[in-house]
Amino acid sequence: MAEEKKKIGFWSIVLLTINAIIGTGIFLSPGGVAKLSGSLAPFIYICAAVFAAVLALSFASASRYVVKNGAAYAYCEAAFGENAGLYVGITRFVAASIAWGVMATGVVKTALQILGQDSSDKGKITLGFLLLMTILLVINLVGTRVLTFVSNLSTIGKLSALAITILAGFYILFTTHVNRILEVDQLLNDAGEKLVPPLTSGGFVTAVIAAFYAFTGFESVASGASDMEEPEKNLPKALPLAISIIALIYFGIVFVSMMIDPVAMVSSKDVVVLAAVFQNPLIKNIIILGALVSMFGINVAASFLTPRVIEAMANDGQVPKLFAKRTGRDLPLPAFLLTVLLAIVIPMAFNYDMRGIMIISSISRFVQFVLVPLAVITFYYGKNRKPIIDNPKKNFILDVPVSLLSLVLTLLLLAKFKWAAQFSVTVDGVTKPNLYAIFAMILGYIVLPILVYLYRSSKKKAS
């Protein structure tokens, strides 16, 4: 039994972080950034990595002060009190559960498309969804040791697929001396205008922000801090290292793809767009397999991290203590089942309309990216509302200037975020309010926090 409860070590934390970040985007839609930035797309990913690394450093700094499950919830609860923690925790949990449901739907739909099945068949999607969730439940029930093994294996699988693709790409470049990267700048749209507009300062910022979303996921890794070895030491080192590795991989894959066939990357209708760049069947199959492994891997990471947010809230009395109960092999089973319920039911209720429900996930990230840097500054100056670890290793540069820079970058994200597009939808040329998004926003950011607050208040009165 002791072996089953072995905690996650440093390199497994690095791999878990990579697993939580690399999802479907780099396989399915790398052309989106290229449409915004043209031949400069590979370098846009480097800029986005710097952007993400600065934000990740704030979360890494916070993990030196607070060592408990919950990540942003735990940091905000310690810095600003239980009400701020409640709001961040419940919105983050709901958003992460929905995001997991979206990712699971993506796995099922992509698998159906690759297998030549109808990916719009609601019955097949639902069956695939339930099968995937059952597999993830079994992996988590077996114990942290096996889950870590599966997570590491899936991470290595997706990294291997990307690495093989990069090496194959460079081999093609060196043997054929092909260089088509500038072709993307000359592409025309249906109106005869350049598909990629000249890159202005505003366009550069927009492209970097678009690429930045390929690096999100790091903010959830500390949710399982209590299941990790020395998280106060390992997390601050693991997060930046993982982002650096991902940055090199993203740069390499986008660079070789654009050198070989940028037109295919921005215009292909294939399910796995990256595969359209390569003519070799073996490379195509490796990329497609890598995409499926990547999607499965990010679901494994979500199945481990997301339930631990509501578990952390239960341990603090914010929600019923039931959700803090663990099995003999350290799975918070009630929290897991609640997370699965939200991940399944909400996408089904929204008729698998991903545009309608991702607004919750996006805004939840903004809440965290604003409050966590402020929490770190609060910890540094000893103004926190609740106790933190004894004698934390303070670092003025990381805790204050870097956190302030993180806050500035987040405000830039907020300013450039396409709010109107999130709350509207165009059908047959007519723009209408996106009722799904509006309902999701009201439910996730107003109704549920109020209900949880009332529950906690009633429990306090009763005691």
Largest sheet composition: 2 strands, antiparallel
Provide mean pLDDT, rounded: 85
Structural class: mainly alpha
CATH topology: Amino acid/polyamine transporter I
Radius of gyration: 22 Å
What is the CATH homology-level superfamily?
A: Amino acid/polyamine transporter I
Order of helices and strands: HHHHHHHHHHHHHHHHHHEEH
How many separate helices?
A: 19
**Largest beta sheet: what is the strand line-up?**
1-2
Q: Which CATH first-tier class would you pick?
A: Mainly Alpha
Number of separate strands: 2
List the domain count as a whole number: 1
Give start-end ranges of low-pLDDT stretches: none
Question: Can you describe this structure?
Answer:
By secondary structure, the protein is an all-alpha fold. It has a single domain (10-424), classed as Amino acid/polyamine transporter I, CATH 1.20.1740. 69% of the residues lie in helices and 2% in strands. The chain is built from 19 helices and two strands. The chain has a two-stranded antiparallel ribbon. Strand 1 (424-427) and strand 2 (430-433) form a beta hairpin. Helix 1 crosses helix 8 (144-176), helix 4 packs across helix 17 (401-416) and helix 8 packs parallel to helix 10 (231-260). The chain is globular and about 70 Å long.
